[in-house]
Amino acid sequence: MKKTQMVLAINMALLGVTVASSGIVYAAETEEGANKVERIAVTGSRIKRTDLETAQPLLNISRDDIDRSGLSSLSNLLKEIATNGASLGLQTNNGNTGGAATVSLRNCGSARTLVLINGRRWIPQLGGNVDVSTIPLAAVERIEVLKDGASTIYGTDAICGVVNVITRNDFEGAEFSGSMGGYEQGDGEQETASITFGGAGEKTSILMNVAYTKQESILGGDRDISSVPIYNLPANISGSGGRASPTTPYGQYTATVDGVKGSYTLDQSKTGCVANQECTSVGDFKLYDRLTDGYNFAPVNYIQQPSETTSLYLQAAHQLNDSITAKSDVMYSQRTSEAQLAAQPMGGLAISKDSVYNPFNQDITGGSFRPIVAPRSFAADVDTWRVSGSLEGDFELADRSFYWDAFAAFSETNSVFLKNGFFDTNKVKAALGASSITNGVATCDGNAACVPLNIFGGPDGVTQEMLDYISVSPRNLASQTLHNYGASIGGDVVELPAGMLAFVAGVEYQRHAGYDSPDPLTVAGQVLGDNASQPTEGGFSVSEAFAETVIPLLADLPYVKKVELNAAVRVSDYSNFGNTTNPSFKLTYAPVDDVMFRASISDGFRAPSLTELYSGQNDSRPAATDPCDIKSVAYTSSAQTRANCLAAGVSTTFEQKDPQFRSKIGGNPDLQPETSTSKIVGVVYNPSQIEGLGLTLDWFNVQIENLIGTNTAQTIANRCYIQGISQYCNLITRDTTGALNSNPGEISNLLALSQNFVGGYETEGYDFNVTYNFTTSLGDWQINWDSTYVDYAGDIGQPDRGEVNVDGNISGGNSVGKLTAGASGGGSEFRLKSNLTVGWSNDDFFASVTAQFLSKQIESCSNVITVAAGVGQPELRDLCSDPDNMAMSYAFTPGTTDVVATEVSAPENKLSPTMYFDAQAGWNTSWDSTVSVGIRNLFDKEPPVAYSAFANSYDPSYRIPGRYLYASFKQRF
What we know:
Belongs to the TonB-dependent receptor family. This protein is mainly beta. It is globular, with a radius of gyration of 30 Å.
């Protein structure tokens, strides 16, 4: 089916049956007899013009910049730009088992960043975010990053910015390029190969690019910082602040031995039970010690996922006559990747006293075991393709020039996710039931197909036959389609005293549809230890009309070189929630030729994604503290909380054992769109005294209201047991029998569905960019310095920490400069992120040096303090930069909305500022080829240790430890 679709799509492009336009370049006569002047529609405006300095704060990444970076994927390139925040990529393993790579401008979330290809919408995933790994970097000519909201221009999702990827155009001849690289440690190898063909006749042109990229894996155990759950701390602490897993290859079994009831584990120096032998060796087991018996899962995890991508890009253009051109393009990408985690933990096990391998001679509930024969793997196979086309042209009417276009595009992505290393719940239950020895072989009583499972023999006690019986490989499918059609017309309307009034207006239609189909065993909750997941299926459509105009207000007056107003509006009619209208106004003022001031205010919106609307209820495991834990601060400090817990049936001796709640999340078809307001005020300075120098400084503020999200598990628990709000208690179910993990009272289900919040998110700061191109006797120089300084990020309205926000929650205040603990996609919120590149070229040689600066961050260090006390090593406290820090803790007075502040111990750790240096040098040979070599992380800078990072000891916003060396070659024919 895939092959048939691709062949059809390519034939359509070659024949020009469907036609597509980049919508980037348009040439027109400025006056009779004059040379043609190129008009360009830059990202953020649909009006084509010759003046490129507008009210749009824009970052341009050229093909030379891409080559200079030494990076082989678009996702890694975008990850490092100053405006981008924490986002998923192939350096995120746990938490990104689908292998997607996203971009999150302004750190607003990837679903609030719009990604375009040649000005047209690229297909999003079901969750609304775009997987940029499906866009082949080899086909990219340049990238324009708009640092402003643009819903009036492009519609939904363009709240915090736009990434417009512009593919290669007007290429003649052939070119082969390839690169190879890897880390000094001998891993993480990457290789690329690309070939491009292009040619143009009198009326027809065609371009084709075929590319291949391969990336090898890096294991956590191959770097010191990622080889243990928390770097610098003992690797096997499963409690008291440690992160080692309590589910180990030596097991845990709640049993009574010689009158002592407790949780027992196999002594690692003993053999335990042996396959196909009746087991009575209870003396081989000891009481489990959470300070020494935890399992170090870290070495098996990937810190770089392996991936392989093959892509095809094909475009064709044919001039039908002097004023109409037909264009088409096809883009296809096939990506495979694989995440890897430690072997599947088996928890909540019930073992029959009649099992041949049960040495305790008693029924056991809540047992746990981890068979480490093979790790869990999550393989992703994703096919994405788009075929699109347009007709575009120009005409003269009443001595005015006009241009128009009409386009159609169809995109589709199909994904197969295959999981290995998982187990069938029912078969595990049968394998732990009654069994006996028959003719020297263990057999399940009454079930000939069953193979008894030995979880009492340590890592070597499980045989391949046992694994074969209980193993399953769930296969999940997902697909999404996007139909997109549109037409527009624009041009010059009327001559005003200050210049020509220009406009563009058009209509657009989109239809989104998709589904996520989990494996039937997953739907039924029969995959042991895996989150049960329900199918997602649905769709919606939107019809839109937009208009944009540029009105010159003043020109060529004293101290007024130009004043210009850009106004735009978009009206959208969604099939699922109705209408939304979003205007924008942008003003530019140039007092003289060298200086331009700009300001803008834009309304924006984001329609709910298919997942947010139609997702079935899925299991989740968020980390949270149970207020009913008798050792929690909430419990010990409030009689009202204790009374609320008792009324809910929680024992007065309950202690939380599982640090993660069992929660269900899911969609809500009644969701409304998010709305936003974006403001920009800035200045552009191009001093005529210094040719080639350009400076821009912009203040930005983005406010997002009606935010789509879910209450955290902690919020729901707190509102129930601390504030006593019954509607939240109705969302919580507790395990009263101990079947979950032999600890009656644990939260077994907590319902947290998608909803709109009255308030939302706000961020404010400054963008600063300097470019300087000049020539000396030593050669040509290029300097680019791009920086983003974030002043505020947090609740809308900028409340102080401890104040109640508009949704009735206690605000965390300004999060800038603070690392969010346990964020799987990265928790970094840098105050300053800056990139400086200095390039040089002279005749056939060139070189460059790039410096990236990431400012300091502060994180909680409480887990280190807890470990130091738990293991009796007070010297570990010194790992925290400020172990004795005190801070105010804020909580609602139980049963009220009043906030009470208490000074508590709040140990902190500072992640020092980090600077990476990259270097590259190359040679343009006499046989029309280019050879270059480079080093990323020239000085082998290690990422700062983050004790609160998710599943690792450094945040994925930093680079993988180690120098990366590469070489590339390009041959033109």
